[in-house]
Design goal:
Length: 68
């Protein structure tokens, strides 16, 4: 987990289909992609991934590798 203070003031984004903050939010920096629970906002933990890790995750999502 990344220190959430490192992402204060970041531009957090969520899906347009998100309903009332019940989604994950992502923020991008030069070297990291941060993910947090939209319901908790600045008070919750932040997971941070390197850009290569994030790109790999997105590729796998688009390929359906997490579909059940």
């Amino acid at each position: 987990m990344e220190d959430r203070h490192a992402f204060w003031g970041a531009n957090w984004r969520s899906s347009g289909a998100c309903n009332g903050g019940h989604c994950v939010e992502v923020a991008f920096s030069k070297d990291l992609v941060a993910v947090r629970d939209g319901k908790k906002g600045d008070e919750g933990p932040v997971l941070a991934f390197g850009l290569d890790e994030w790109e790999s995750f997105i590729t796998d999502v688009k390929a359906g590798r997490f579909d059940h």
